[in-house]
Amino acid sequence: MISKVQSLKAFLGGAGRVALVEVAGTKGSTPREKGAFMLVSGTAIFGTIGGGQLEYMAIDKARQLLFSPLEGEMAAERPEGVVSEGTARASSTAATTPPGGFAATLPSRGRDLSATLDVPLGPEIGQCCGGRVEVLIRLVDRTLEAELVAAAEAEQAQLPYVYIFGGGHVGQALASAVALLPVRVVVVETRAEALEGMPDTVETSLTPMPEELVRKASAGAAFVVLTHDHALDFLIVAEALKRRDAAYVGMIGSKTKKATFRNWFLKAADGSEAQFAGLVSPIGGEAVKDKRPQVIAALAAAEIMTALATHAGARAVPHPVSRGKAMAG
Prior knowledge:
The chain is of the alpha/beta class. The protein has helices at 4-14, 52-66, 142-158, 169-178, 211-216, 230-241, 255-268, 273-276, 293-312; strands at residues 19-27, 37-40, 45-47, 103-105, 114-120, 132-139, 161-165, 184-189, 203-206, 222-225, 248-251, 279-280, 318-319, 325-326. The protein starts with a helix and ends with a strand.
């Protein structure tokens, strides 16, 4: 499995000199929140601050900073000096404001390696958000690199788990869809061949007793059950419904399957009506009458993410690089 932390480390390790582009302030409607960031090298980017002309401007300004003639040609190695939260923004006269109407400041000399953009998101730059974004750009030195990695590790440790029981057609499609979200995905199977071809960012677990993983899962997890065996589905769902801290319990199937499960759950599994009420089945809702795996996966992914966000109460992980800001990528 390849995690976001591993991807970040790989980017930092192979990109040469890098600039951190961070949303330092927002007013009104903006594409990303304060604290969102991206990394820019001479040839690649990692993450996003919302796309569009705002992002293009920020990338261009970051590369101006990377290739600034005041700093000499782009260094092969990251600078050893400390560019920290306390680094002063350039106090020299700002560059002439271009037709787009945004103010830009570049460093004047020496080790003052930062730049700022203050961009109104209006028709002048081809965006209609209507808000305003302040972007801070800094060169990444060894200290800042370590802080970025530590922040990513802290964020990853707080990500909620999504357990997908079953690696069939819908399980494969759902794993691919959910793997794009800020969650940790585990696909659980009793058949080794069903775990083949899973996305690199998905963890897999081959076990003869998948219900054991339900008992061991952390609080706030989501459980999606779609195995090849209805009896196994029932066993896993029963375990999940008896947890009081699950964010989501879903089972693929029809109204008939749900009714059959309810009868078994109440009479043979010591379940209650209150517990049964926590079951989402069929997953993805019934508004769209399309049973193709990819469609079910898209609808279920949105449903799961909504449940996780509601359960977590929109918790945010502090961003060590920028005091009190939530890390985003």
